[in-house]
Amino acid sequence: MRTAIYAGTFDPFTNGHLDIVQRAIGLFDEITLLVAVSPTKKPTLSQEKRVEILNQLFKSEKKIKVDCWDGLVVDYARKNNIPFIVRGLRPTGDFEVEFQMASMNRKINSNLDTVFLMTSEKLYYISSSLVKEVWQHGGDISAFVPSIVLEELNKIKGK
Q1: Which terminal Cβ of the chain has fewer Cβ within 10 Å, N or C?
Q2: 35: number of Cβ within 10 Å
Q3: Domain enclosing residue 68, as ranges
Q4: Residues with catalytic annotation?
Q5: What CATH number did the domain enclosing 101 receive?
Q6: Would you place residue 159 in the very low, low, confident or very high pLDDT band (cuts 50, 70, 90)?
Q7: Whose CA is closest to 5, among 93, 102, 96?
Q8: How many domains does the chain have?
């Protein structure tokens, strides 16, 4: 069975993330969406809420598992015998950072390969941080996130 991890803070989970997941489903038998903790980021949505959103969003997709982890993704992969990490690439400078991360991961766990998927040309400009900034300033983010994500964010703002 071909298994992979698609890890991120997913704060918020965007249509760009959704694009990568939908395409990765065709490549793998099982994908774990791993809500990861980044010590450098302050999330808007709790880890539990992000896991709940992803479980609800993918409830009918049998190939998707959702989990959370506060350690290194390579350690999660090793612990769960997962040989692949899926990463999305945008034409906005992602390559250098992602290449360095994939190289470090491979050095730490030589049984782990990273599979890069190019983000759709219609979505390449979307990032969680930009979406969050637009939302925090009262802008309309409905074109950038799944409706369930928008609903949860609107609950925070009391809309």
Answers
A1: N
A2: 26
A3: 3-157
A4: 17, 41, 90, 128
A5: 3.40.50.620
A6: low
A7: 102
A8: 1
